[in-house]
Specification:
By secondary structure, this protein is mainly α. The protein has helices spanning 9-22, 32-35, 37-43. The chain is built from three helices and no strands. The longest helix is centred in the N-terminal third of the chain and has 14 residues, at 9-22.
């Protein structure tokens, strides 16, 4: 399991729900819509977004 400091079960569930409703995140900054701008900035260096193979 991979973990990010500050992302617990509740926030992880919100991230997954957002992604399921709106599709993949285009970049780390787009996490701000779910976790807020301060948390997204704090996570920026530790979040990797890769293209989805369809």
């Amino acid at each position: 399991m991979r973990c990010l400091h500050g992302i617990g079960e509740k926030r992880a569930a919100a991230i997954v729900a957002f992604r399921e409703a709106h599709g993949p995140f285009p970049g780390p900054a787009s996490l701000a819509a779910v976790v807020g701008p301060k948390m997204a900035q704090a996570l920026r260096e530790r979040v990797v977004v890769t293209p989805i193979s369809r």
